């Protein structure tokens, strides 16, 4: 009976070790996601992209049905 208990505990320990990100990995992932969002926001709100989007939307709205 002790051997079965040992195997169950060992299996559970092994499962817990890869359960997810640690706190530092989670923090780095969050920082990277925020940095990516900031860069994307800057690109989308730039004058060149804004003009291109307005032009594309204007042409799409002017299409006759």
Description:
With 65 residues, the protein is mainly α. The protein has a domain at 22-65. The chain has three helices and no strands. It has helices spanning 2-17, 23-44, 47-61.
Task: Record the SSE blueprint.
Blueprint: H1 2-17, H2 23-44, H3 47-61
Q: How is the main sheet built? A: none
Topology as H/E string? HHH
Rounded Rg? 26 Å
Strand content: under 5%
State the end-to-end distance: 78 Å
Topology, number of strands: 0
What is the number of helices?
3
The helix-and-strand class reads mainly alpha
Percent helix: over 70%
Low-confidence segments: none
**How would you describe the shape?**
elongated
Mean pLDDT over all positions: 82
Question: What brief labels describe this structure?
Answer:
3 helices, mainly alpha, single chain, 82% helix, 65 residues
Concise overview:
The protein has 3 helices and no strands. The protein is mainly alpha-helical and 65 residues long.
